[in-house]
Amino acid sequence: MNHLMIDIESMGTKSNAPVVSIGSVFFDPDSGESGPEFYQVIDLTSAMATGAVPDGDTILWWLKQSPEARAAITTSDSISINAALLGLSAFIKEGIRIIGLIDTACSLVINSDLSVDG
Length: 118
Known about the structure:
Elements: E1 3-10, E2 19-27, E3 34-41, H1 44-49, H2 56-63, H3 67-72, H4 81-91, E4 97-99, H5 104-117
Parallel strand pairs: 1-4
Antiparallel strand pairs: 1-2, 2-3
């Protein structure tokens, strides 16, 4: 499989928003079959240490979500943004076509984090 879908959760909609989780899955668009998956919760403090800025409206949105949804981004096994991006990079192989059901803001956030972290 050489198609990859990536989704993130963040604390804002701008390119400098702190990312709080990254999920990714390989898939075959012809068969609909899914393959290996990657998911990592990112420590908010770590994400903000890179200069990321949360958005008040997004924080209010998260506060209105279910306890399960909020718990998914506040787990004790979160890691630094650097470690998460290194893990995602290792998960992705050269020659992969990335498909994302994400808006432009999510794409900008990932690119912003990658440029901050090298």
